[in-house]
Write a structure and sequence with these properties.
Blueprint lengths: L3 H25 L8 H30 L5 H24 L3 H4 L1 H5 L7 H5 L4 H24 L1
Helix pairs in contact: 1-2, 1-3, 2-3
Amino acid sequence: MASSSDTWMKEYNEAMKLADDINSMISERSSFPASGPETQRHASAIRRKITILGTRLDSLQSLLSKLPVKSEKEMNRRKDTLANLRSKVNQMASTLNMSNFANRDSLLGPEIKPDAMSRTVGLDNSGLVGLQRQIMKEQDDGLEKLERL
């Protein structure tokens, strides 16, 4: 069984690969025409991947806080590498004028939710469906809140 530290490193390496993929896609933008459907599709794909990467970074941050501390030095190293990657992602987002990505927390507040797995412990199928409906309602309420802004 892999330790949570190994899981964190695996997730981090996957996030780095995604960041490299996004960087190469941004570099490819110069080979596309200034406008047009193909250019828009490419830019949308980049934005989608940046959003996915942002979500992965949030997950890594959450995992980091749950890791058993081997040493303070190792924990600080991981925090620094995560902060550096988040900085890169914010730079990529600003390249594409994705200002809403960087301001997500300022719109909805920081996302502080219980771990999804801990919310499902002990639930049967109908309990899971009920939880899913509750989460969907919370998301709908959040969207309504955004629409009023």
